[in-house]
Amino acid sequence: MQAIALTGKQQLELQKRDVPAINQDEILLKVHAIGVCGSDLRVYNHGDDRIDYPRVIGHEIAGEVVETGERVTRFKPGDRVTLGAHIPCGECIYCQQNEGHHCIKGHSMGYQADGGFAEYVVLPKKFVQNGSIQKIADATSYELASLSEPFSCVLSGLDEVGTKPGETVVVYGAGAIGCMYIAALKRMGAAKVIAVQRSKTRQQKAKEAGADLVIDPSAENTTEKVKAATDRLGADTVIVTAPSADAQRESLEVARTTGKVLLFAGIKPVTENPINTNHFIYKQLKVVGTHGAPRYLHMEAVKWIDEGLLDFSSFITHTFTLEDTEKAFQTALSKEGLKCVVKPGERDRKLV
Ligand SMILES: [Zn+2]
Ligand SMILES: [Zn+2]
């Protein structure tokens, strides 16, 4: 089979490998669609402590079960599924609390185990037992199903920050995640969603996703614009999906007194980010961060996709063959569009 291995920082290599053999507790999955995540770009650019080279990265996976070990009972060849990212150990305190996304071991697909930028991927025992493997509706394409993992993280963020209908929400960054937030917020009854985004293409995408107002921070004063749009109060909720220290600092300014702030994107390389903590106190802000998603929200994300509760196809702007994975990464890095999805099955289809 063909696989794209990360062999060093910013080095992706197309490798010929044997189709991996599975043991009695594992599943072999044929990958049909795999999304390029912001965290993949971070690992590509900066490496990661949890990754030894060479490693096939990628965790936004949708595909077809082609083989199951004899002790696997929940799945059979032919099942069409989409995956969560985490490989919970099942034993630590977080796993015991159904918070496998905070598992102390911190194992994830594409980190300690090979991930999805390949024709086939092995789902290891712990993943089969404790991870999220969700069947998708017959009518759901693999391409859309691959959005289940990032969208589950969006749902987890909304859950944690506790946005209510009728609110005014500012979303920093209108990439795939930002646009999913914008669309989901509108669907959930936000009164006004304001996007903050530099790139012109993404400003357009934010509008298409339902943003009522789009601010270009390179040309406008974001804090002033938000104040003007909220009777000088500031936003009820601010969500920062852009990996930007400036945006994180500013989010505290644009939130109203007793408002809420969700920090969603980590900053790499790690830098100190001096913030005005007085905002926490005198504005009595609730500031939360989220990372990943629990299994039940991954299940919910699949439901949203199966039932078409949002126009999920609008979040995918580019698709690539497996051979063009490098191009997919470059496109994602260029911030030209939203989600880039690689389709390892595409080459096969052309041959048929
Ligand atoms: Zn992801
Ligand atoms: Zn655990």
Automatic annotation (TrEMBL):
Q: Which cofactor does it need?
A: Zn(2+)
Please give the PROSITE patterns that the UniProt record associates with this protein. ADH_ZINC
- The protein's superkingdom reads Bacteria
Q: Which InterPro entries does the entry mention?
A: ADH-like_C (IPR013149), ADH-like_N (IPR013154), ADH_Zn_CS (IPR002328), ER (IPR020843), GroES-like_sf (IPR011032), NAD(P)-bd_dom_sf (IPR036291), Zn_alcohol_dh (IPR050129)
Q: Which UniProt keywords apply?
A: Metal-binding, Oxidoreductase, Zinc
Output one GO MF annotation. oxidoreductase activity
Q: Residue ranges of the Enoyl reductase (ER) domain?
A: 8-342
What family classification does the UniProt entry report for this protein?
A: Belongs to the zinc-containing alcohol dehydrogenase family.
Which PANTHER family does UniProt cross-reference here?
L-THREONINE 3-DEHYDROGENASE (PTHR43401)
Would you tell me the protein name for this molecule?
Enoyl reductase (ER) domain-containing protein
Its lineage reads: Bacteria, Bacillati, Bacillota, Bacilli, Bacillales
